[in-house]
Amino acid sequence: MSLLAVLDIILGLIFVWLMLSLGVMALQEWLAARFRWRARLLELTICHILGDDALADQLYNHPLIRSLYSGPNAAHKPSYIPASHFAQALFDLVIQAGSEASLLQQQLYALRRQVATLKMRRQRAAQKRLNLMLALARRALVTTADEVPDETATSDLRLELDAFAHDFPALAEAVSHSLNAVVLQQEKIASALAEWQRQKGRGIPETTLDRLRVGLVALGVTHPRLKQTLQALWNGVEEYVAAGESPLERARVQVERWFENSMARLSGWYKRRVQWLAFGLGCLLAVLLNADTFQIASQLWGGGALRSLLAQQAMHLAAQSELPPDAALTQVVAMQEQLSRFHLPLGWFGLPLERQEAPCRWLPRASGEVYGLLIAGRCYPVVNAPLPDDMAGWLLKAGGLLISALAAAQGAPFWFDILKKIVNVRLAGRNPSEESGAAG
Question: Does 68 lie in the same domain as 215?
Fold first, then answer.
């Protein structure tokens, strides 16, 4: 066999693997969108770096982050958060960390998990009441540096919590614990702030950076791990600012880098998870389609017409500058009739036999019986598969399916790049008779 024929066999195999990879990628994207894996993993990562689910809920409900929600009624959390949005939202949370409204809001988010233990009807009613109280908490938090906090909103919020405990006795203990926790946290924060001001000799904070440092003191009571992280990021920002850069800008850049590093680790973990998923989907497709690499290679080796057809399709695809998934899949559908004429070894069952003289059995006992499946009186012959008792044949089949699954898991871009390189090699070594034939 000539070198060009061998290259055509390789092109045909890579083309089949490329089609399988496209199928895996399409299934992957559908599953990721359907179950919103990216959004869930992002939320888990943010919960981890902040160290508290309630604080993560606060961050997600900040207007900057809420603006990234999608779907009907903005019900879907974002799968990507810009580092600048994260830093600004976190700054606001830190500045408000010691306020009564912020402490109450955190307790409300913690109560959500208690609400999940109620029966369905009571759970819905309790969730509606919680949403109303969270709206009150947000109103209390909407203050600027020159405004006085809305004390009426926090008073109303406490009254609503008392009424909530009365209407839902199963949650009364949890509500009482939340209110007591807020009182205790306020006392500890006030004591810590007084000690901090005494040691630093500072009075009322004037700059945003000063307000952030005051917020760190409050975080030392409610979230000491986050306080330690941010303090390490902000230590010495006044000394290490670049020319023309403000200390506040430097602090923001530090938080953005911290978040981006966390997202880089998340991306690496997600890619590893996706690779395992791609292999699983590749196994599924290979088994469903009976895409046996060994059998396809054998068919290409012995079938010149099929080999030429797949090589032509591969070269046509490689001639494109980018891999267009829709166009590639359209090509497969368009050449389906051609492939069926050349008997590409895909699938487990052939067309039903029109005239069936021999018995159709799943476990044939004699050489004259048809190896197939009898459905509604029609025999569907098993194709591209060894007999049930042929263990060596099934081991070889399993190996061919495994190779196809591994190939499909590599991704369509990987095979597209290799396809272009091999096509270049083939064109460089084209037989002069092929060129004269093409010219004629």
Answer: yes
> Is residue 63 located within the same domain as residue 96?
yes
The single residue listed with the structure tokens 């938090």 is 141
DSSP H stretches of helix in 36-62: 37-50, 53-60
CB atoms within 10 A of CB 231: 13
Which pair of tokens denotes residue 194? 């007084």
Q: Which residues have a Cβ under 8 Å from the Cβ of 118 and sit 6 or more positions away?
A: 126, 168, 170, 171
What pLDDT does residue 279 have? Answer: 94
pLDDT band at 353 (very low <50, low <70, confident <90, very high): confident
Instruction: Give the Cα separation of 276 and 29 in Å (integer).
Output: 14
Helix-strand-coil split of the chain, %, nearest 5: 70, 5, 25
Asked whether residue 247 is assigned to any structural domain, the reply reads no
CA angle 382, 385, 391 (to 5 degrees): 130
- 310 shares a domain with 217: no
Burial 408-433 (b: 16+ CB within 10 A, else e): bbbbbeebbebbbebbeebeeeeeee
Is 237 a member of any domain?
no
What's the number of domains the chain is made of? 3
Rounded distance between C-alpha atoms, residue 384 and residue 89, angstroms: 60
d(CA 193, CA 386): 79
Two tokens, residue 253: 């850049």
Residue 336 above 70 pLDDT?
no
Q: Which of 212, 258, 205 is nearest to 233 (CA)?
A: 258
C-alpha 19/C-alpha 220 separation (Å) is 56
Domain range for 195? 52-222
Grouping H, G, I as helix, E, B as strand and the rest as coil, residue 415 is helix
Confidence of residue 436 (pLDDT cuts 50, 70, 90): very low
Q: Say if CB 114 and CB 85 are below 8 A apart.
A: no
Same domain membership, residue 212 and residue 149: yes
Same domain, 358 and 302: no
Q: What is the distance between the alpha carbons of residues 405 and 282, in angstroms, rounded to a whole number? A: 4
